[in-house]
Write a structure and sequence with these properties.
The chain is built from 9 helices and 9 strands. By secondary structure, it is of the alpha/beta class. It folds into 2 domains: 157 residues, 3-Layer(aba) Sandwich (Rossmann fold), CATH 3.40.50; 74 residues, SIR2/SIRT2 'Small Domain' (2-Layer Sandwich), CATH 3.30.1600.10. The longest helix is centred in the last third of the chain and has 19 residues. It binds adenosine-5-diphosphoribose. Adenosine-5-diphosphoribose binds next to helix 1.
Length: 249
Amino acid sequence: MKKIVVLTGAGMSAESGIRTFRDSNGLWEEFDVMEVASIEGWYKNPGLMLRFYNERRKQILACEPNMGHLLLARLETNFEVHIITQNIDNLHERAGSTNVLHLHGELIKARSSVDPLLIYTIGNKEIQLGEKCEKGSQLRPFIVWFGEEVPAMEAAIQTVESADILCIIGTSLNVYPAAGLLHYAPYGSPVWLIDPNPPSGLSKSIHVIAKGAGEGVEEFIERVRTEKMRRNDGDGETDICMEFGKINP
Ligand code: APR
């Protein structure tokens, strides 16, 4: 079974009603990212950050997976699908995707502020100042903030390095190290990008679908499926590396 790796960003959840960060009316137009999403901000004003993420948790958990999430989940019937997401919502999981790696954490979880391995599932509960982990330290959102390491990065790189197809959906590719995953796709594995306003400076070998996530994933699946049928070489396997006549240089 061919392996499709999907890297998603905030644009993947835009059609579910969740604001992106850097589009017009994005979250970082309203909030100072260093105040509400950095480790410095946590040391300076943990109460403000707890309120920011309590509010986002409430808003996000009221949203539903969109067509793009649902189509990616359904893709698992024909392919081995690995989702690597920068998003902290749980819409991929709620759509039915079974293999989701969160690079920047998860809103439905909390962690100890002294031991990153002490993680608690809190669902839609708020985290209050004074709430402590079993080691007596303040509970904090299970989110990777600016200025912190991305613990899941090594696992993400290994996943991308074994992709037969890499599909990037709804990310401005502004934030590293996540944005660097694009360069780990194996030679010959096609790279797709779905975004109504694709980032500039992309390699010419990347297949761009300049549409929103829902329509874009639909078109992506159609084209991969068509290619799979056309190239089926008899053993049920498909040489999708030769898909669409373009091979990554
Ligand atoms: N469908 C697909 N993509 C969309 C849609 C849509 N309906 N609407 C907007 N987009 C695209 C935008 O064109 C943009 O390229 O989604 C992208 C969103 O970019 P950002 O707001 O920068 O979000 P993201 O790339 O996920 O940010 C990365 O930055 O602030 C941190 O930790 C945060 O994980 C986040 C990281």
